[in-house]
Amino acid sequence: MSETIRTKLWHSCRRKYFPKYDFNVSDYRGSDEVDNVLSLMTGQRRSYFKARIDKNNPMTWSSALWVLGLKLIVCPTEFHKLKFYLDELLMHDDLFLICHYSKKLTDNPQLIFSDSQDDYIYKKFSTKILHRNRLIDVETGTIGLVTNKYPDCYIKWICRVVPFDYSELH
Fold first, then answer.
1. From 37, 66, 99, 102, which residue has the greatest number of CB atoms within 10 Å?
2. For residue 115, is it within any domain?
């Protein structure tokens, strides 16, 4: 039996919560900030999320999604690049938010672990939607296969989108 070098993102791949989901990226193109990405995912106005979330706290994102019938589960991740999670994400074949550090930070990973209070370090991450095998990038307005996009970027968070009544105890 071989050991894995990291924990699994999700306990089971049996259940798919969002096999069909439509995205109209052109209406949201221009910003990969969390409020814009959540707006694209839900169809809710960006101002709804701006007033309710802290962009650096996925728990606030989940709280804002709750009244819309959704919530987020933050998956256990370690300091790895997206490419190390791709096989498992594709196996789950569902809806996730992928937050990754900017290219500048990925090229200089020591900055991610820096004790600097420089605001740039904490604010510079991008949020993408992963639906099945498609990565939805609102900044560029593109939808592409996940294997072709951002494989070398370090992950900040991976969140699975689930119905608001999801319980890990089923």
1. 37
2. yes
Return the closest-CA partner of residue 161 out of 25, 37, 8: 37
Q: N- to C-terminal Cα distance for the chain?
A: 28
pLDDT tens digit sequence for 70-121: 999 999 888 888 888 888 898 888 999 999 988 777 787 777 777 766 655 5
pTM score of the predicted model: 0.86
Q: Which domain holds residue 63?
A: 25-163
**Among residues 106, 90, 114, which one has the least CA distance to residue 155?**
106
Residue 126 covered by a domain: yes
For residue 105, give the CATH number of its domain: 3.90.70
Q: Residues 14-40: pLDDT tens digits?
A: 788 888 888 877 777 767 689 999 999
Q: Considering its fold, how many domains does the chain have in total? A: 1
Tell which residue, 63, 83, 82, has the closest CA to residue 71.
63
Q: Is residue 10 in a domain?
A: no
| In contact, 89 and 6? CB cutoff 8 Å | no
